[in-house]
Write a structure and sequence with these properties.
Blueprint lengths: L6 H13 L10 E2 L8 E3 L2 H13 L3 H15 L10 E2 L3 H24 L19 H7 L7 H5 L4 H21 L3 H10 L11 H16 L6 H20 L4 H18 L2 H6 L2 H16 L4
Parallel strand pairs: 2-3
Antiparallel strand pairs: 1-2
Length: 295
């Protein structure tokens, strides 16, 4: 999936990742399929566990890069011509990659770019024994603006930059292609831990805003499951407004207002197609998102 003006950045990202050690595994791991577009490194549970250990237990940057490459392959699994580095043929492995990366990569990004992790994130720390300090609260504040210069001055920034870009672009692809409300909700909730790391990538942040606004305002259906998608999409829009440098908040207000106004002005269409709950859900999500300090 191409993202307009960011195509050149995609090419640079691929080159950076290749230069930084994302070469294919030995040929013994390669599965020769009938479709050449499906060839690649076969991602098995054992290989995934090895990458996870290298990325999270020993904080290896090369293992993290390969893990994100696997995540990218999972996010493009429906694209037969994507030419991804890894080949995934097991639902168990697919779910494992998605859950692993969405839940744990934020800790590694913080470790490599900010040089620290919170006490809750340190391995082996029991929740009952953990006492949150004021510093932990600051570190855990997912709605706090993170100056892009802070990230760009990090010693490992040049290594982590293409990894972050790949992670975010892959996640954008999932938001655009996924049809199951359950998967969308999982991704949207997980993004709460990553919004702060978008500050060095304003164009990617704009792409997220566009995608999130589309999910929130789209007249897909009026089922209870999709209303959860709408609400979480708006929470992420609100979070972008809080975590991205000014004047990004103005763009958030503009796009959500236009989307809301468009839905209201086209009242007849959502009512005929999706029923009144579809329109009410947009109103509720908009009002809740603007007033809920816990979002």
């Amino acid at each position: 999936l191409k993202f307009g003006e960011d195509d050149e950045e995609d090419k640079m990202e691929e080159e950076d990742m290749e230069e930084d050690g994302l070469e294919d595994e030995p040929a013994s791991h390669v599965k020769a399929g009938k479709d050449n577009n499906r060839n690649g490194v076969l991602l098995t549970p054992k290989l995934l566990a090895s990458l996870a250990k290298g990325a999270f237990a020993t904080h290896g940057v090369k293992s993290l890069k390969k893990l994100i490459a696997a995540y990218r392959s999972a996010c493009h699994i429906s694209d037969e011509k994507s030419g991804q580095r890894y080949h995934i043929d097991s639902p168990k492995v697919f779910n494992g990659v998605m859950v692993l990366c969405l839940n744990r990569c934020s800790v590694e990004f913080k470790h490599h770019l900010m040089g620290e992790t919170t006490s809750k994130e340190r391995k082996g720390q029991e929740k009952d024994d953990d006492k949150e300090t004021p510093d932990d609260k600051d570190e855990d504040d997912e709605n706090k603006l993170l100056n892009p210069k802070t990230l760009e001055k990090a010693e490992r920034w040049e290594d982590l930059r293409p990894i972050l870009q790949s992670f975010f672009r892959s996640t954008l692809n999932v938001l655009a292609e996924a049809k199951e409300p359950g998967l969308l909700v999982v991704v949207l909730k997980s993004l709460a831990k990553y919004a702060r790391f978008l500050t060095p990538f304003p164009r990617i942040a704009e792409s997220f805003l566009k995608s999130l606004t589309k999910l929130w305002s789209a007249p897909v259906d009026s089922t209870e499951d999709y209303q959860v998608v709408r609400l979480n999409a708006f929470f992420r829009i609100r979070q972008l407004a809080l975590t991205q440098p000014f004047p990004f908040i103005e763009e958030c207000l503009k796009k959500t207002y236009l989307a809301y106004a468009g839905a209201v002005s086209a009242t007849d269409h959502p009512v005929r197609v999706d029923g009144e709950p579809a329109l009410y859900a947009r109103s509720d999500a908009y009002a809740t998102g603007l007033t809920d300090d816990e979002a």
